[in-house]
Amino acid sequence: MAPGTTVLMQARPKLQLDFIDALRGLAIIAVLVSHAQRNVEIYQAMGHPARMSPWLSRYADQGARGVQLFFVVSALTLFLSAGKRLGESGEWVNFYIRRVFRIAPMFYVAFGVYCLAPVLLKGHALPPVGTLLGTLTFTNGWSPAWLLGANDVVPGGWSIGVEMSFYIVFPLVFLFIRDFPRALGALLLFLALDVFLGPVLVANPPIADADLWERFMFVWLPNQLPIFLYGICAYFILFTDTGPLSRFFHAGNRAANAALFAGAGLVLLVVPQATADSRAVYLYGGAFALIALCLNRQPYRWLVNPLLCHVGKISFSGYLTHFFMLQVARKLLDKVHAGTRLGPDAYFVATVAVALAGTIVLATITYRFVEVPGQALGKRLIQALAARREAGRRTLGDGAA
To answer: Is the pTM of this model over 0.85?
Structure first.
């Protein structure tokens, strides 16, 4: 565990973390829903301009907040993993190796499909060199053009740039935030900075393209950091002893837990209809963290089930492949003339159903044959480095003797 924390002893011999996979499953479904809505309303997948029912469009549009759900879960699980490995030889080198081999193999396959293939097969132009290099080296998170241009290299690449930026600073975050009070203090501090200082920075762009600057200010790491901090706060509540909070979310009153879960769900239902203010993202982040806490106490089977957990397990592959499957869904629906037979709402639902089914199948394959071997390669590299360090220590020991 992080220095200065008190480990919360679990009554059960093994941590039950299926709810984490279930939340990842919800996140990728939400993101797919958001992009399906854009297919209908922006990219004219029906073959003509179309608008969904306003209430449905607002909910679907906010499916993009599935990215923030990924961030909450990522921070929680990173702290859990780092806490378990504290004191490991070469722990931070190993951390970066695990992260790179978790992300890079599937990401580079996606780069080949989305970027290189059109260049080689259709004569498309490559993105700018800076954007290309920044994206492929995962350093694109600190330049407006590189970060938002990452979508031209790999669709959805901006969020992976933000995630990798968090990985870069994670060791400092982990070593500084050693307990729940510090995590909560950091959350409140960055919330205040982003809520009150953010609009000032947006209003004074240092680049000519004010629209690009405003979009960048929303997605870059400092603005998303409170979302990660929600996940870190949830980690300390669940996996260290924070007193009444920890006791409640492990063995508290189930009716009260259900009420909190319903309250978080109500936020997700009301906020999309009530406001389009970008700062509402922090309400979503808080609701996601609370849902995670409640699911630890009571993993409701209608939500934490084998299918959704499987979708969560393959969610990174799903994130990268669902863009392709949305194109497939568009072509399949075009063949049955769905654009003329269905209204916008029904077409949207059909798009989600077809694309989600295809994404689950394709992502299951890429997870098995790309992600798993990639992670295994990273583990072998860590083992090889550990063996080399051990051999070096033995050599020094023999020399001293």
So the answer is: yes
